Here is the input.
Amino acid sequence: MFRSLSPHYFSIEDIFATQERLPCKFVVPVHRLGFLDPSSESEDIAVGTSIELPFWLAQTLCSQRRNIVTVEIPKIYKEAYREILKADACVVDLHKFGLFFYEFGTYLSRLEHRDSAVIGSVLVQTFKERFRQVMDWAHNSGTDPAIIQRLDSLEKALFREGHQTRAQLDAWLNAGTGLITAAEMVVNHKKRKLAVLDDF
Amino acid sequence: MENSDDVPLSDEEPVTAQIVLRTLQEVWLNEKFSPELLQHQSDLVDCMLDQIQQMEENLCKLKKNDFRVVIHRMELDRIRYMVTDYLRIRLNKIEQYVIHILEQETSRSPEDAFLSPPEHKFAREYLAHMEDHFRLIALRHMPSNVQDFDKTKMAVAPNISSHIFLRVKKNITGVVIEGDSENRDEEVDLDENSQHIMQYKPIADYLKSGAVQLV
Amino acid sequence: MFCEKAFELIKELHRSPDILPLFNEDGVRQVLEEMKALFEHNQRDVNAHIGGDASYLSGVHLRHTALERNKRCLLAYLYDRLVRIRHMRWEFGSILPPEVKYNLCEPEILWFNKYSKSLANYMKSVGDSHGLNLTQDTKPPKSLYIEVRCQVDYGKFELDDGETVLLKKNSQHLLPRAQCEPLIRQGILEHIVH
Here is the structure.
């Protein structure tokens, strides 16, 4: 069953989203961690060093209390790219923008950065404009499968959900429900067993 | 069930059996569509299961090729499906939101408990087994300052902002729909028998008091 | 970068959402080793800090964040696997086929058995303790009898009314739905719809 999408501690998607990187500039020196900067051989990280860090790390280092780095917004959320989305969000290959475009973007919109608020509204706007198209694709059996490659992971999940409900509706209209099927895991297990046999 | 005007199998209190069935059907749909766990209805479930058993016994008394057998057995199967599905949905939610649900349950008195005693036991065991497992493989091998099983951090909560379909059973005035950065709060009245699609959060209390039905 | 190994574990699950991959014992061990190293380095730098040099604190903070991240990834890995294993209890029943069981580590088998027992106790307690099997009646019934096709040579199968049928591979039968549902779920029979 398709339930809550809100991120939680064990959420695989959320761990992926917080793994996305963003440029960070160190404002204090950090001893003995020089190896984090692949372009430098020094033992320490010097003030002014720029490194791309995953969001989970950047977030704690840039808090007001710590203030170890200042973060920069990744280029796909910067003004030039935001303009592309504003012009016509529907034609954009969002997958190329980022696999977790909305989730990562939501985190950026919560940072204390001068661009945060505007990123938030661009996300909402982009989603609204593309949603209709995603649902249209999902409900149309003639949709070219390649088109899915242009969606970010959230849109892909919605697409799959829409596609499934459409298939369920069709099945119900045609024959009614009630077909008992082998448990999904049993089926997968059988397939793998066959595949293993094929290898011999 | 649609054909609830079937000839009842039991001679005693036929009306009650039908009311039980109808109530259970509402309870089942509410649980199915509500994002959070609702209050348990074990009395209703027990009562229905007793009815099933009684009907089954009565069926055995009928001749095998009596055409009524087919109809009633079908009806029985449908009721049994509804009961098992209802309990399955609850177990699913209990597992998924176990920390959150147990935490909420501590603030409730036994009469207002949302979990039935067996569900409560199941939930406590589920959480304990999970913690044992984490401890056995990972936590005890971790450095001392990160070994804790931090329940507040690890709780998974249902998304009560998700949308639901509902039918109004009693007139309700002044449901407050929270606004966002662009819209202001709004108040709406819901008329009896009207149907709506809206966020779960503003109507959660009306669902619990029985003023609306999820569909 | 820190926590690469831990993220590998998460990627592994993400790559195969429908099956349970082999428990990555080596991967888990490497994450725990990285955590140990992070902790030891922090101990050293904390001592330097206590010795009066405050400039080590940023590094301590950074490593601690990495420790917590490692922990999160590792527990999420275990958690997601438990959810899949839990699902297996509902699909395969209380006894797992050996090839499936092979992908579980010892503690996971232990957990599976405990879960199985908890669930059985719960199902027994439903309805004034006449019990109710919740892994049955998984689909809304449409008819009492259904047409099924046998997928394997199963042998004799006794129905509730005492009659027996011989289930041979590729044979077709009209059987009471309630009784053959478990066999369909296990993939022994296939439900035929015209």
